[in-house]
Amino acid sequence: xxxxxxxxxxxxxxxxxxxxxxxxxxxxxxxxxxxxxxxxxxxxxxxxxxxxxxxxxxxxxxxxxxxxxxxxxxxxxxxxxxxxxxxxxxxxxxxxxxxxxxxxxxxxxxxxxxxxxxxxxxxxxxxxxxxxxxxxxxxxxxxxxxxxxxxxxxxxxxxxxxxxxxxxxxxxxxxxxxxxxxxxxxxxxxxxxxxxxxxxxxxxxxxxxxxxxxxxxxxxxxxxxxxxxxxxxxxxxxxxxxxxxxxxxxxxxxxxxxxxxxxxxxxxxxxxxxxxxxxxxxxxxxxxxxxxxxxxxx
Length: 298
Hints:
43% of the residues lie in helices and 18% in strands.
C-alpha cells in the first residue's frame, strides 16, 4: 500500500515493481533483437558453438544428442560429459572443453531441443550478455528453465569458474556481477516460447527425487502452489508417478549435506515410499505421449 505520509510505495513493493520493469525491458529488447535476427544471420553463422551435454545415464540421452545434431544452425562441436560430479566439477569441465569457442550451448541429457533452438539463442546473444536463455516444456511442471547459451568471451575475460556450493549456477552469476556490473546476465524474449522438451517422461523414482531435491533448496518448506498443481494433475490423470511426486513434496528431506546434489540425493525415503505405493516398476511413467516426442524432431 501507499505510504500516505510520505507519498511513496514501501521499499519491498518498490523493489518488486522495479524488478518487473527490468524483466519487461530485458524481454522487450530480446524480442526486438530476435525479430531482427535475420539481418545478422552471417554474423551468427560465423560463431563457433560447442554443445556440452551433461549426462548421468538419462533415458533420453540418445534423443538429446540427436536433437543437437539436427539443429538448423549447426554447432561446431558436440561434447558429452558423463557421470562427473558434483555439478560444479562437470560445469568447469564444460568451460575447459569450450575454452576455444565463442559460445557454449549448455544442455542436460534430459532435454530434447527443437531444431531452431540454437538459431534462436544466437539471435539473442550480445557481446555484453552472459547467457541467452529460453524455457523448455516439462510434462509435469509446464514451462521450466532453462536451455542456455553461454558467452565464453566473458568467461575468459573475467576468469570465471563454478564453485562447489548449493546453486552453483546462481553463484556463477553473482561472481559475474561482482567482477563486472556492466554485464547483462540474461537475454530472453517476452513470449518465453519453449525451445524444447524437458524430461519428457518421469518414473516415480525420478519425480520423487526431483521434488525432494527442490524441497531441500527451499529449506524443506512445502510449496503450496506446486502441491496443489500436482494434486490437480492426479485428479485429472490418476498415476502412481504423480502420487510419488506429491509425497516428494510433502515429506521432509533429511539430507543436511552441503554442495550440489549427487545421483543419490533426494532418495533417503524412496524405498519406504515405493513400498507404500506398491513397488512401482520403472516402466510406469507419466509424461508426454510418443507423438509429442516425434513432433519435437520435425
